[in-house]
């Protein structure tokens, strides 16, 4: 018996699938994208599709599911959001005219990092990162296809720093070299939210070299070459709408690492309370998506340069004082679409006529916005910003006021824009009249009143005559029968055919010409891409400045003052979000005052007393101040901080599954190693995760180290009351505590920070508030009395020993030496590394 073989189409499918094992293959068959075998099983589950079977030549049916091609976008979006890659295998030849198997091939691969449909979340970025590794360090080159942004970060050669950098940027996909160390690859693949793609090494194409600056390190060049090769492979075209790469230079911004951003709920809120929100969503009064994204960047990267901060402050002050200017700007900003993404989509070539309309609307308002913004004196660059007005005039002259959603429907261009298009439009619209004229003429000469001319896709135009009148058709009329129906016959005449050819031809020509003109228009827009991006950036900044002004006005915030000394004077500071959320109770404001010689505020007081809130509010005030915003307090004098370290609340490590205590120690370690005199450290109940004496000993040792060596401004909350003794022995330690009132065994929280130490913990009182069983509370009270009678503190000695300080530079040097993989270094890398080691060593002196 002859062995059954797979059908040629299935054989082709299997071949393509073998070449793309890590992608879900959308295989175009007629009006559907079909998925087969494992892909079909997976997609049917992920997309709730019905799994059917296809007879593909062999006995057993092959699992199959499909989606209509016109609805593919939403399915692709769902798969990509879940981290899958989708390869689109399209029909490349027309099934109607091709003989044998229709030619098919992959036209595009859509991945989490390359997805750039218009429905993507407008306010958030979708970064993908190309990772290149040398034996010395790691470069993460972040790119956003939808905005054309390229920026890099150079990190230590450590997996943890890479993972944190990727999480900080909310990276959806990474491209790594195929040669990547197996251990690293496995760890990166384990990260839940990131899709990993491998790429072979390629050289950087000449035209992409212009994206780099002369002094960009070699490792950045490698990352760019790898990224461009990957994009070419997946997008099947060379991407040429990127802006030149920029460095995410840590030196010019206040460093907030991944943990700090999380602990302070800067971008996403981690609290389970539905009322809570992040600082970003709280502050955001931007009218455009570009503005919201820029505000996010300002929050994540506050400045450390006083003139740059003051530039933003002065702009807010101008806008605050000029009501008319502010209101006029707001009026125009309401019409600003996502110009950054629109311009990139156009340069990429997948823009729709509606996108072009949105760009025109944006540009129409860009000019008055930039003109108005010239009044903001601290931003002289707004005077130089291109308003792209001539491009606006050109597009406006081309596009109708209300263009259709897609090009297919036609009617995108204005009358008078192109002579040839007008002529073709004339012919096809006249065509309808011509057909009507023929119908009337035929009715007259045959005398058949019911005769009519119709159209179908198979026969084109035809004359339909009811069968009862067939005898009235004379031979000289030249009627050729085309189709016989039950009660009528359809004919054509040579005149009808000739007119039909003209009409159909004009229609096809018209469509082709509109497509051609639209492509030309996109290319014209692409010529101004650079200007469009600078204009978009300026509009986004103006939007943020107006938004910050409105926030300051709505909430009565004040302008912070910066000084070179390391003293802090925040009068009546408030937690911006908590203050706003409190409806029934009033938020109690608190001063935060630390003079030059003060380094540590040791905060004691009962649980629920407001210690964490006080620490967080101070960190948020610092961040808001250094991003240029006004702040929630009565007056505010601050130094410029270089970095904020936080250890607040209990959390496990989402990366490596470390215990709460371990994470606490690791975070404390980072602060102790890298904090400087200009840093701000927030330690919330450090040491509570272990036995009391262990915890207390660790806490005191850390405090002593900060006090004696680092001298960073530190807010340290604790329930170890013994630590408050340090105030007497360590000059830079100051005790503060939260005020509570105790009345007949009940406590009343005052949320006010006052000088001095707390005398009691009130833990049992708080437990009572939580409605613990009465018997448990009674037993605890009794035990507490017993404990208090044993004098524990007499054995406790606040230490005065002087520690050998860890020099941050020295530990950095040692870390680097340990990390070195000398065998895999090229002579050049070895040389570069030697220079860097020498520099580190010099810094220690
Ligand atoms: N300044 C304030 N004004 C009004 N209410 C406040 C203030 N500070 C805190 N609260 C309220 O008290 C609650 C507890 O505050 P917070 O978490 O800061 O206490 P805590 O002292 O850190 O407690 P624990 O030691 O248990 O962590 C807050 O959720 C808020 O509702």
Automatic annotation (TrEMBL):
<keyword id="KW-0067">ATP-binding</keyword>
<comment type="similarity">
    <text>Belongs to the DNA mismatch repair MutS family.</text>
</comment>
<keyword id="KW-0547">Nucleotide-binding</keyword>
<dbReference type="InterPro" id="IPR027417">
    <property type="entry name" value="P-loop_NTPase"/>
</dbReference>
<dbReference type="GO" id="GO:0140664">
    <property type="term" value="F:ATP-dependent DNA damage sensor activity"/>
</dbReference>
<dbReference type="InterPro" id="IPR005748">
    <property type="entry name" value="DNA_mismatch_repair_MutS"/>
</dbReference>
<dbReference type="GO" id="GO:0006298">
    <property type="term" value="P:mismatch repair"/>
</dbReference>
<dbReference type="GO" id="GO:0003684">
    <property type="term" value="F:damaged DNA binding"/>
</dbReference>
<protein>
    <recommendedName>
        <fullName>DNA mismatch repair protein MutS</fullName>
    </recommendedName>
</protein>
<feature type="binding site">
    <location>
        <begin position="605"/>
        <end position="612"/>
    </location>
    <ligand>
        <name>ATP</name>
    </ligand>
</feature>
<dbReference type="Pfam" id="PF01624">
    <property type="entry name" value="MutS_I"/>
</dbReference>
<dbReference type="InterPro" id="IPR036678">
    <property type="entry name" value="MutS_con_dom_sf"/>
</dbReference>
<dbReference type="InterPro" id="IPR017261">
    <property type="entry name" value="DNA_mismatch_repair_MutS/MSH"/>
</dbReference>
<dbReference type="InterPro" id="IPR007861">
    <property type="entry name" value="DNA_mismatch_repair_MutS_clamp"/>
</dbReference>
<keyword id="KW-0234">DNA repair</keyword>
<keyword id="KW-0227">DNA damage</keyword>
<dbReference type="InterPro" id="IPR007696">
    <property type="entry name" value="DNA_mismatch_repair_MutS_core"/>
</dbReference>
<dbReference type="GO" id="GO:0005829">
    <property type="term" value="C:cytosol"/>
</dbReference>
<dbReference type="GO" id="GO:0005524">
    <property type="term" value="F:ATP binding"/>
</dbReference>
<dbReference type="InterPro" id="IPR007695">
    <property type="entry name" value="DNA_mismatch_repair_MutS-lik_N"/>
</dbReference>
<dbReference type="InterPro" id="IPR016151">
    <property type="entry name" value="DNA_mismatch_repair_MutS_N"/>
</dbReference>
<dbReference type="InterPro" id="IPR045076">
    <property type="entry name" value="MutS"/>
</dbReference>
<dbReference type="Pfam" id="PF05192">
    <property type="entry name" value="MutS_III"/>
</dbReference>
<dbReference type="Pfam" id="PF00488">
    <property type="entry name" value="MutS_V"/>
</dbReference>
<comment type="function">
    <text>This protein is involved in the repair of mismatches in DNA. It is possible that it carries out the mismatch recognition step. This protein has a weak ATPase activity.</text>
</comment>
<dbReference type="InterPro" id="IPR000432">
    <property type="entry name" value="DNA_mismatch_repair_MutS_C"/>
</dbReference>
<dbReference type="Pfam" id="PF05190">
    <property type="entry name" value="MutS_IV"/>
</dbReference>
<dbReference type="GO" id="GO:0030983">
    <property type="term" value="F:mismatched DNA binding"/>
</dbReference>
<dbReference type="InterPro" id="IPR036187">
    <property type="entry name" value="DNA_mismatch_repair_MutS_sf"/>
</dbReference>
<keyword id="KW-0238">DNA-binding</keyword>
<feature type="domain" description="DNA mismatch repair proteins mutS family">
    <location>
        <begin position="679"/>
        <end position="695"/>
    </location>
</feature>
């Amino acid at each position: 018996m002859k062995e059954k073989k797979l059908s040629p189409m299935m054989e082709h499918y299997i071949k393509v699938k073998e070449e793309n094992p890590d992608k879900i293959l959308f295989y175009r068959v007629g009006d559907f994208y079909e998925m087969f075998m494992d892909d079909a099983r997976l997609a049917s589950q992920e997309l709730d599709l019905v799994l059917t079977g296809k007879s593909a030549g062999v006995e057993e049916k092959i699992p199959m599911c499909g989606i209509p091609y016109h609805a593919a976008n939403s399915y692709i979006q769902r798969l990509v959001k879940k981290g899958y890659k989708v390869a689109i295998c399209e029909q490349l030849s027309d099934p109607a005219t091709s003989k044998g198997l229709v030619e098919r091939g992959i036209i595009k691969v859509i991945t989490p990092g390359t997805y750039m449909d218009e429905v993507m979340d407008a306010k958030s970025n979708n970064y993908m990162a190309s990772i290149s590794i040398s034996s010395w360090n790691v470069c993460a080159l972040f790119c956003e296809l939808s905005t054309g942004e390229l920026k890099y970060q150079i990190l230590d050669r450590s997996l943890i720093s890479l993972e944190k950098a990727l999480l900080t940027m909310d990276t959806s996909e990474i491209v790594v070299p195929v040669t990547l160390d197996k251990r690293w690859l496995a760890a990166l693949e384990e990260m839940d939210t990131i899709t990993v793609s491998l790429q072979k090494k390629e050289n950087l194409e000449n035209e992409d070299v212009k994206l780099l600056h002369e002094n960009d390190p070699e490792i950045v060049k490698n990352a760019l070459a790898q990224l461009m090769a990957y994009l070419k492979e997946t997008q099947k075209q060379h991407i040429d709408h990127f802006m030149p790469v920029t460095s995410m230079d840590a030196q010019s911004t206040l460093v907030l690492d991944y943990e700090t951003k999380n602990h302070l709920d800067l971008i996403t809120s981690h609290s389970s309370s539905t009322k809570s929100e992040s600082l970003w969503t709280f502050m955001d009064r931007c009218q455009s998506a570009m503005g919201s994204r820029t505000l996010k960047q300002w929050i994540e990267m506050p400045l450390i340069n006083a003139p740059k901060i003051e530039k933003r402050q002065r702009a807010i002050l101008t806008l605050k004082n000029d009501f008319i200017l502010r209101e006029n700007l707001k009026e125009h900003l309401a019409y600003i679409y996502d110009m950054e993404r629109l311009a990139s989509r156009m340069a990429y070539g997948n823009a729709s006529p509606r996108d072009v309309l949105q760009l025109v609307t944006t540009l129409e308002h860009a000019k008055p916005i930039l003109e108005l913004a010239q009044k903001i004196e601290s931003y002289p660059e707004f005077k130089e910003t291109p308003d792209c007005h001539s491009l606006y005039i050109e597009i406006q002259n081309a596009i109708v006021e209300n263009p259709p959603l897609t090009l297919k429907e036609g009617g995108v261009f204005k009358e008078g824009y192109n002579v040839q298009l007008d002529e073709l439009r004339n012919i096809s619209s006249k065509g309808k009249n011509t057909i009507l004229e023929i119908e009337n003429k035929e009715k007259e000469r045959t005398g058949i009143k019911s005769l009519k001319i119709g159209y179908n896709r198979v026969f084109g135009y035809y004359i339909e005559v009811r069968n009862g009148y067939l005898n009235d058709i004379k031979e000289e009329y030249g009627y050729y029968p085309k189709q016989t129906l039950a009660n009528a016959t359809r004919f054509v005449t040579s005149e009808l055919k000739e007119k039909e050819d003209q009409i159909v031809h004009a229609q096809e020509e018209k469509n082709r010409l509109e497509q051609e003109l639209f492509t030309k228009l996109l290319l014209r827009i692409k010529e101004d891409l650079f200007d469009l991006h600078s204009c978009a950036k300026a509009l986004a900044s103006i939007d943020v400045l107006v938004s910050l002004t409105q926030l300051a006005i709505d909430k009565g915030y004040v302008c912070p003052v910066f000084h070179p000394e390391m003293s802090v004077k925040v009068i009546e500071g408030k937690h911006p979000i908590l203050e706003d959320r409190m409806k029934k109770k009033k938020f109690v404001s608190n001063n935060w005052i630390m003079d030059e010689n003060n380094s540590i505020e040791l905060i004691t007081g009962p649980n629920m007393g407001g210690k964490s809130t006080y620490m967080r509010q101070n960190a948020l005030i610092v961040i808001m101040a250094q991003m240029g915003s006004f702040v929630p307090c009565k007056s505010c004098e601050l130094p410029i901080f270089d970095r904020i370290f936080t250890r607040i609340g209990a959390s496990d490590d989402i990366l490596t599954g470390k215990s709460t205590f371990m994470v606490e120690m690791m975070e404390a370690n980072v602060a102790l190693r890298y904090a400087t005199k200009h840093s701000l450290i927030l330690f919330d109940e450090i040491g509570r995760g272990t036995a009391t004496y262990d915890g207390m000993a660790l806490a005191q040792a850390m405090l002593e180290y900060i006090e004696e060596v680092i001298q960073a401004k530190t807010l340290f909350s604790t329930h170890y009351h013994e630590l408050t003794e340090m105030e007497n022995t360590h000059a830079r330690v100051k005790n503060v505590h939260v005020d509570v009132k105790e009345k007949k065994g009940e406590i009343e929280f005052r949320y006010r920070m006052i000088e001095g130490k707390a005398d009691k913990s009130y833990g049992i009182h708080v437990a009572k508030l939580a409605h613990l069983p009465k018997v448990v509370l009674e037993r605890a009270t009794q035990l507490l009395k017993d404990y208090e009678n044993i004098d524990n503190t007499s054995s406790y000695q606040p230490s005065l020993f002087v520690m050998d300080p860890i020099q941050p530079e020295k530990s950095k040097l040692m870390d680097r030496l340990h990390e070195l993989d000398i065998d895999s270094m090229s002579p050049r890398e070895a040389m570069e590394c030697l220079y860097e080691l020498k520099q580190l060593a010099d810094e220690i002196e």
